[in-house]
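Action item from last week, closing it out:
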Amino acid sequence: MGKIEGGYYIKARKIQNSEISVAPPHIREIWDWILKEANHEDTKVCKRGQCIRSYKDIQEGLRWYVGWRKCTYSKNDCETAMKWLTKHTMIHTTKTTRGMAITVLNYDHYQTPENYTENYTENYKKHTRNIQTRHTINNNEKNEKNIYINIYSKEKMKEWSLEFKDKYPNLNIQEEAEKCMDWLSMKGKTFKDYKAFFNNWCRNAVKFSNNGAEAIYTATDGRKFYSLDELNDALAQKLYYIEKDENGKVKRIIHNRKD
């Protein structure tokens, strides 16, 4: 027997114990189709574990026939499946001019054959080093088409949440982190600095929240400051200055009028 053309992809048996094993059939089939379509190596357009596809591609790729009649999943079926897979952190999507850029999360871990052997630990260390090297190289290259996805921002979100917890004491940071990630996934937005974006998200969440959060300071002109970061910005612009009492505590935030 000769070489099997077309390559292969791996499905771990442990999937039988996962939530997708009892998901509706169209979700399971679309998940399997995405695994098949994902790149097995980096290209100029997509990284390993990514592909760019549209709902029409999914519909056409999973068509079937009843006699001479062609049947496809509805667009709603496709949207439902993608939302389910995103919610269960199996994929991440972002919009591009050519369709959806789909990233299969943990692709390297599950699609590396050596990870299924007894020497998994050593193979994992080598593989991780290779990934880090590849990411370092890719980070030094200009991404002109702006379709690569920074999936690591989600992993960092927990770290930032702990950092911002003291900065925004009246805010449910974990809840805001989840809202922020959902918004990024839904809008398909990418940013150079996700930490700065999340900080600004929290600042606005405090300012416009409906939970009755109180301002930490109110200036003489009536302006309210809901975080120290917001206050420091105003002070840096010399719009306000601080009057302190004998103990060095903030007494008033005075508006610097420019008549």
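Closing note: Strands lie at 50-53, 64-66, 69-71, 91-96, 99-104, 217-218, 224-225, 240-244, 250-255.
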